[in-house]
Amino acid sequence: MIDAEPIDRLLHALGDPTRRRMIERLGERPRAVSALADMCGITVTAVGQHIRVLEEAGLVASSKLGRVRSCQLDLDGMKIVEQWLSERRSAWDRRLDALGSVLSSQQEGNR
């Protein structure tokens, strides 16, 4: 997914239930990779693969101190999701407002 648009990478990353669970846990506080593995019931290696996808999407940042790799949410990625959703919502709001106007004028014409 190297050439994908940022929103494509984000939606791909969020499309996996294990990665969403990790995001939820990291929303509480930063966590060690081993702690995420325990919480999700998967291996540290599997967590590392999921973290790589989340980092590429801009949702998670990780750092290593000694032998412990820790992860935390990167809110910039969440802002991209929020902006994308907001743009879609605005478009639908405009369409629904236009439909409401048409229906109101038809209703008034029928009176």
General description of the model:
The protein is α+β, with helices and mostly antiparallel strands and 111 residues long. It is 69% helix and 13% strand. The chain has a three-stranded antiparallel β-sheet with strand order 1-3-2. It is elongated.
Q: What is the makeup of the main sheet?
A: 3 strands, antiparallel
Low-confidence stretches: none
Given the structure, what is the number of helices? 5
The fraction of residues assigned to DSSP E strands is: 5-15%
- Secondary-structure element string: HHEHHEEH
- Tell me roughly what share of residues is in helical segments: 55-70%
Q: Tell me the Rg in angstroms.
A: 21 Å
Distance between the termini: 57 Å
Mean pLDDT across the residues is: 89
Work out the number of β strands.
3
- Placed side by side, the strands forming the largest sheet appear as 1-3-2
Query: Helices and strands: which structural class?
Result: alpha+beta
- Shape, please? elongated
